Amino acid sequence: MGIHYDYKSTRGAKAMEKQAKRQKKLADKKAKREAKQGSPKNEENKSIPLDQVITLDHLTNPDKK
């Protein structure tokens, strides 16, 4: 009866540890996913405004301002 004696008394603590571990894992995954998606967002800011006409110069030399 030794192993099973403290099962119910420690069940809540074990459940809390599992939940904390699960939440930490999900938070790490979310941070990693956001870090991956962060770089394409920076490229979106380099778009040409709608009121400006696109010329051959824009297409051949996009870094020129």
Description:
This protein has 65 residues and is mostly helical. It has one domain. The protein is built from 3 helices and no strands. The longest helix has 38 residues. It is rod-shaped and about 80 Å long.
What's the quick description here?
The chain is an all-alpha fold and 65 residues long. The chain has helices spanning 2-5, 7-44, 56-60.
Note the topology:
Elements (H helix, E strand, L loop, with lengths): L1 H4 L1 H38 L11 H5 L5
Largest sheet: none
Total beta strands: 0
Outline the low-pLDDT stretches. Answer: none
Number of domains: 1
> Helix/strand/pairing class, anyone?
mainly alpha
Shape: rod-shaped
State mean pLDDT (0 to 100 scale): 81
Helix content: over 70%
Order of helices and strands: HHH
Strand content: under 5%
Tally the helices: 3
Please compute the radius of gyration using only Cα atoms.
27 Å
State the separation between the terminal residues, measured CA to CA: 78 Å
